[in-house]
Design a protein that fits this description.
With 391 residues, this protein is α/β, with parallel strands linked by helices. The protein has 15 helices and eleven strands. It has a domain of 40 residues. The protein has an eight-stranded mixed β-sheet with strand order 6-7-5-8-4-9-10-11, with helices on both faces. A three-stranded antiparallel β-sheet has the order 1-2-3, covered by helices on one side. A hairpin with a 5-residue loop joins strand 2 and strand 3.
């Protein structure tokens, strides 16, 4: 017996037809046969859940030509990369030249786009209507290059490496510190420092001026919080150094030995102040409610919801704006289920109820994304996911 499709399912089927995709007839038959879309060749995506009717407010996200930054983060394995990549595709298909950046040490952006994005350079993505570029920041490669560079004499190798990663400005501002002698191994926080350098490039460099939307696929919670707190840490540290320099006038000779004979105490202080100003600029960007938003992605499990609550509390302390919570991999209600599915749905319902009662999460705009039975890979699949999530 055929059933009348829901309005949203009808829209998905219409979307599939417009993209030359073939919806399976099972999408309209008994409840035991969940709706799915048959993509060309071997790519098939089946929605185990009927797409939710809640809206994320994408029209607001896509409005205007002013550049906006979106950072997606949460617990590992909740689908941040798929959500970030699908958001980037939807922005590009809505007329925005878009850049999607992965700061996760365990990259999966290449897998999502089914395209090699490694190498640490901008790579054009094929398929969207407007320009879409992707970038994977490779911290492991950076560590190896750092180790190799640090072995070169006079620290010039490290400076070359810093230049290649967009950190040359830091070397210029701090002076030649003979890093080859001081740092045989990469310092703690190098991953976050590299990510910060990229943010600086996005803000200032002419090559990135074309992008009106920049989407970050961030690392799991701990790495992301270190990234967001690094500008504050550096700002405070540099401030203390500058105060100390003013008090310790006898330190001139020590400064010359570090920065070179041609440097004066005032020159060094000026460079530190310039670096501090750059950190302040990045910090203000992270906290700018007009241009930046952090979107928490989670799944309907008790552990993931609890971590999302702690993440939001930490983001509030950093004054990072958060409006939306994406709950991924949600099963729909069903009249008949196997025992496993019934237990799984019961657990998900309990987790979703936690959101409504959690003081950190209950006021966020909640969007439930459906569970699909295969990995989302390639631009057509990401476009399909985006039509369900970013409404």
């Amino acid at each position: 017996m055929l059933l009348t499709p829901s309005p949203h399912l009808a829209r998905c089927i219409s979307f599939a037809a417009s993209r030359h995709l073939s919806p399976c007839p099972a999408a309209l038959v008994a409840p035991r046969s969940p709706p799915f879309l048959q993509f060309h060749r071997s790519l098939r995506v089946r929605s185990i859940a009927t797409p939710t009717e809640s809206t994320v407010g994408f029209e607001e996200m896509a409005a205007g030509t002013q550049r906006k930054y979106y950072m997606l983060g949460g617990k590992g394995g909740v689908g941040k990369t798929s959500c970030a990549a699908s958001l980037a595709v939807k922005f590009a298909n809505n007329g925005h030249p878009t850049l999607v950046v992965s700061t996760d040490p365990a990259h999966s952006l290449s897998d999502s786009f089914a395209q090699d994005l490694t190498g640490g350079t901008l790579v054009p993505v094929d398929g969207p209507d407007s320009p879409l570029f992707a970038l994977e920041i490779n911290p492991e490669k950076a560590r190896e290059e750092f180790r190799s560079a640090s072995q070169k004499s006079g620290g010039t190798g490290v400076k070359d490496f810093m230049d290649s990663m967009g950190l040359g400005m830091l070397v210029e501002q701090l002076g030649e510190l003979k890093l080859g002698e001081l740092l045989d191994t990469p310092p703690p926080g190098l991953d976050e420092a590299i990510a910060i350098s990229k943010v600086m490039q996005f803000v200032e460099a002419q090559e990135y001026s074309m992008f009106s939307r920049i989407v970050f696929d961030t690392a799991p919670t701990g790495h992301t919080l270190r990234l967001l707190s690094l500008p504050d840490f550096l700002d405070a540290s540099i401030g203390k150094i500058l105060k100390l320099r003013k008090k310790l006038t006898s330190a001139t000779s020590a400064i010359k030995s570090v920065f070179g004979q041609e440097e004066t105490q005032q020159d060094a202080s000026d460079k530190l102040e310039q670096l501090r100003e750059r950190m302040v600029k990045v910090r203000e960007l992270f906290r700018d409610t007009e241009s930046t938003e952090f979107i928490i992605v989670t799944i309907p499990t008790v552990m993931a919801i609890n971590e999302s609550s702690r993440l939001h509390a930490s983001l509030k302390k950093e004054n990072v704006p958060v409006k939306r919570l994406i709950v991924n991999q949600v099963l729909p209600p069903s009249a008949s289920d196997c025992k496993f599915c019934a237990m799984k749905r019961k657990d998900q319902t309990r987790a979703l109820d936690m959101i409504q009662n959690d003081p950190e999460l209950k006021d966020l705009k909640l969007v439930q994304a459906p569970l699909v039975d295969v990995e989302i890979r390639g631009v057509p699949a990401l476009r399909f996911l985006g039509e369900m999530v970013w409404k």
